[in-house]
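Batch queue: ligand-bound targets. Current item pairs a single chain with zinc ion. No template structures supplied; prediction is de novo from sequence plus SMILES. Inputs echoed for audit trail.
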Amino acid sequence: MMTAYPIGTPGQAWGDAEKAQWLARQRRQRSHADEVLSTIERLRARFDVVQYGTLEYPPDSYPLFALKSKDWREENPIALITGGVHGYETSGVQGALRFAQLHAAAYADRANLIIVPCVSPWGYERIHRWNALALDPNRSFRENSPAPESAALMRFVAPFRERVLLHVDLHETTDTDETEFRPALAARDGVPFEPEGIPDGFYLCADSENPQPEFQRAVIDAVAKVTHIAPADAKGEIIGSPMVAPGVIEYALKQLGLCPGITAARYTTTTEVYPDSPRATPEQCNAAQVAAACAALDYALAHA
Ligand SMILES: [Zn+2]
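Prediction returned. Tokens below.
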């Protein structure tokens, strides 16, 4: 039997007191400056580093950075790669940085790259899915967003959103989704927690309004060379959604306020790496994110 989440009253949504109680339990466990900003500093020679905002959670303050291709060419399409929308999803952040370090140069003459390695630095440090307001940034990409992480990214992309060809958003699905984050979400909203299980392997979320199945398949084929792809469960689903092709499910991105809905890109996908598999190392997870980004770019540029 599931024990109740330690904050709040079952059946009642949290108010400010419960959110404050939750916040008081969150501890800084790693350093955005050491693990993210230091790498961004080293990339200054090769990218235009743009600070697109500052995240203020007093006493903490975090600069928000994007890496832009230095040799920007107006005639080329824009490709957007985002990581760390969920701060705890380490390989999303480190995979985006690794792509910038090792692979971005290979696309310099064909695409204008914008890489946002860590959308949610407060969550990166606390290894948490939510921001300090107990909001999920990846359900908050909407007009007048209450999540400052989401609002800042939307403001940043607004001037060029129509010119984006590709957006890859790098995520993970972890065991802590089932043990901590979904129980917390159910408790926050005052609804029962329904376990869904955690798929063992990599999968993609496509946009149900614009699924681009051939594009998704190209990404899955590339990642399968690096790490295993999640199978469907007994119901033919991955994490509660029908598997529409090997390793692919669909969400209504814009309706749900998900990150890859922030531009008008023809090609969008969300990667979901599974770092807790006995068959996957952190190194493999970072490599899977990079393989996904490269395959997505290769496909999008070949079909632009
Ligand atoms: Zn995520």
